[in-house]
Amino acid sequence: MDNLDIQKLVEISKMYYNERMTQEVISKYFSISRSAVSLALAEAKNVGIVRTQINDPSQNNENLAKEMESIFNLKKCIVVPSGTYDESVLVHIVVSQAVRFALPLMKSHSCIGVSWGTACYEFMHYFPEDTNLCDITVVPLIGISPLLTQTYQLNESVRMFSNKLRGNPLFIYSPGFVENIEDKKKILSCDFMRPILERWKDVDFAIVGIGREQQRTEIRQYKCNGENLLQEIKNNPDIAVGDICALQYNIKGTFLDSEHNQRLIGADQHILAGIENVLAIAAGPEKVIPIVGALRTGVIQYLATDENTVVQILETAKKI
Description:
Number of strands: 10
Radius of gyration: 24 Å
Helix content: 40-55%
Structural class: alpha/beta
Strand order of the largest sheet: 1-10-9-5-2-3-4
Shape: elongated
Distance between the termini: 53 Å
Order of helices and strands: HHHHEHEHEHEHHEEHHEEHHEHEH
Largest sheet: 7 strands, parallel
């Protein structure tokens, strides 16, 4: 096979695999039959121009996992292959492996705490119904969100999840945020909150997401004199970089003594720290800095994420 033939195979392969052209379009472009295009694609594989790689999400990257476990003192890190840059697809893949990992850790006659957000919702939604688990109490770890999207309707997710576990749902009837501390005290002293508060002390396993802070506003950008986010955090290490159960923390992993956290009705840092098994699920470039801060809080024992995110986490952790 001469160089012209090889170059033609390369061009046909690029058009088919990279540009997503159909074999019919390619055949018209080169004035050849569709069968000739099919043969060319097969030949490209035979000679090594095209290589097929299957990313099996169940194949944990143990080298990256061990490094994460050592640096952040994790019991286990699940690092799935990064086979896509579509964040919604990536999260779905990571969640599927988080479910697979968590299933043997969950015990009947126990209490499971859950938070709001896409990762937690998908975990509960895709959790299998055909398990041997039973008599599990499912408790929300935070009050009702003002967001109306399905992933933030925690009471409904709790109901659905508890049905799968053949367990008992506990519903929360308080908003996640209140106007002031006095309102918070009144709500926490209400009878309807007593079962929730008691169960928060008995949570055996928790599933949480890792939230990111909103992108910087123009005013904040101006005040930072054009600094990038990493430099801003270096200069202001006490700013919020993420949240767990809406509870904000800084890059050092310290939960903030802020108005935001003081108005929050949910499991606080002491409750989270007392849970023996906390599984956090997060992936994607926008979650890198929030994950670094979250792991430094010390409340997370298990993390499910992907390879590209882990590589960025390890690089970022060295810088800040």
